[in-house]
Amino acid sequence: MKKYIYLIILIILLTTISLVFFHQKNQTQVIEELSPPPLLTERTETILIEPDMTFSTASELAGIDHTLMMTLLETAETIYDLSNIRAGKKLQYVFDITTNKLEQLIYPIDTEEELFVIKQEDGSWLAERKKIQYDIKIKTVEGVIESSLYESAVAQDVDIRAIINLADVFAWSVDFGMGIRQGDTYKFIFEERYRDGQYIMPGEIIAARFVNDGNNIEGYYYNEGEDKDGDLIDGYYDPEGTSLQKIFLKNPVNYRYISSGFTTGLRYVSAFDVSTGHRAIDYAAASGTPIQAVGDGQVISAGWNGSYGNFVSVRHNSVYTTNYAHLSQINVKYGEKVSQGDIIGKVGSTGFSTGPHLHFEIVKNNTKINPATVDLPSDKAVAEENLEGFKQAIIKWQEALRANPPG
Ligand SMILES: [Zn+2]
After folding, report:
1. Over 70: is that where the pLDDT of 264 sits?
2. Which residues form a coiled coil (predicted)?
3. N or C of the chain: less Cβ packing under 10 Å?
4. Other CB atoms within 10 Å distance of the CB of residue 240
5. Residue 269 Cα, ligand 1 centroid: separation in angstroms?
6. Would you tell me how many other CB atoms lie within 10 Å of the CB of residue 280?
7. What is the pTM for the complete model shown?
8. How far, in Å, is the centroid of ligand 1 from the Cα of 363?
9. How far is residue 43's CA from residue 39's CA, in Å, rounded to a whole number?
């Protein structure tokens, strides 16, 4: 009796296996019939540039002879110097599959443009710069801050580069070093760039909202076309069309240099306090952290200054001067013109100082004022004739930002 059972099981198994096998075989045949292999005319040799690799050695790996390599180098020169290729990027050599001759060379100049060196009909070579066409997806992120914007966003798996872009939008109105409060909220709508279905990087922030210590700040990207020099007139504006850019950045220590991110790496030691005579803000940051000029101006002091240690003073206009003390390194000279965001030195502990920090002062008409509470005006706005267009353009983003406020 047992023998029969085994036999039956064996038969069932064999039938199943053969059924599955034939079924799969059938499917495979169907797939082959539906999609014949595409007729390839090109073959691409992609060389990932290693440290110490030169354009010459990379080209050799791709099977390019010395003469052709020199031709490519010389042709590209007017657009991009290929002797400056960077490790980590890729060189693409595209060959004709039948002749096995190089047809074009592609190299990413930066995140916006690619260099193309293309063979012409007459056999000569031509170099071109082409804008990279990304596929764009629109993403919205919102959150409530417990400790820092950085940590809140990282907890939501948001690309850190998008967070830095967001902080850049509000760099004139929010001090990401010491101005963040528990319960602050943010919401932003931004582009994500994709190529061949793969996520590459965040693109422009379209609209953003930040509620900092109860103050609602909104910024909308707007582009008014080009000026007479061909430069784009664009930026972030509040709903009334006033630029978010002001004469001073909120924080002299740029969050993008704080590797551990925003408030976790950047604490303040002492606030502005008239009773103790400390008419400044002290920012604690690792020694060597870059310090930026908060506004455009001219250096009126750069050197040793007693208890201030290494000291830089920047005069912005007839009213305002800013001072930066205890630096470990000074990057500017007396008389030099600086622009907002320029690195003028590095955090240190020189002079009368108990540990690495930046002592930062704002002087208004010879009186030291509180950098945390100073409210500076904006001197830029959407041009009168574009204001109606701007207001129409932001309506849908405004609605999206204001819908279901977080918290
Ligand atoms: Zn101080």
Report:
1. no
2. none
3. N
4. 11
5. 8
6. 21
7. 0.74
8. 14
9. 11
CA–centroid distance, 278 to ligand 1, in Å, is 6
- Whole-angstrom CA distances from 167 to 141, 172, 344 are 14, 9, 21
Alpha carbon distance 184, 142 (integer Å):
11
The per-residue pLDDT for 17 is: 47
Is the confidence at residue 327, as pLDDT, over 70?
yes
- Measured in degrees and rounded to the nearest 5, phi and psi for residue 359 equal -95, 115
What is the distance in A from the centroid of ligand 1 to the CA of 257? 21
Kindly tell me if the per-residue pLDDT of 291 is higher than 60: yes
Cα of 283 to ligand 1 centre, how many Å? 8
Kindly tell me the burial class for residue 316, based on how many C-beta atoms sit within 10 Å of its own C-beta (0-12, 13-18, 19 or more): buried
Condensed to tens digits (0 to 9), the pLDDT of residues 134-154 reads 999 999 999 998 887 888 888
* Structural domains of the chain in order of their starting residue, each with its CATH number: 42-131 (3.10.450.350), 135-246+386-402 (3.10.450.350), 272-369 (2.70.70.10)
- In this prediction, residue 20 carries a pLDDT of 42
Centroid of ligand 1 to alpha carbon of 385 (angstroms): 46
pLDDT tens by residue, 29-71? 344 445 555 567 889 999 999 999 999 999 999 999 999 999 9
The predicted structure's pLDDT at residue 83:
93
Q: Is the pLDDT of residue 8 over 80?
A: no
What is the rounded distance in angstroms from the CA atom of residue 20 to the CA atom of residue 166?
Answer: 55
| CA 252 – ligand 1 centroid, Å | 14
- Cβ distance 206 to 189 under 8 Å? yes
CA of 302 to the centre of ligand 1 (A): 18
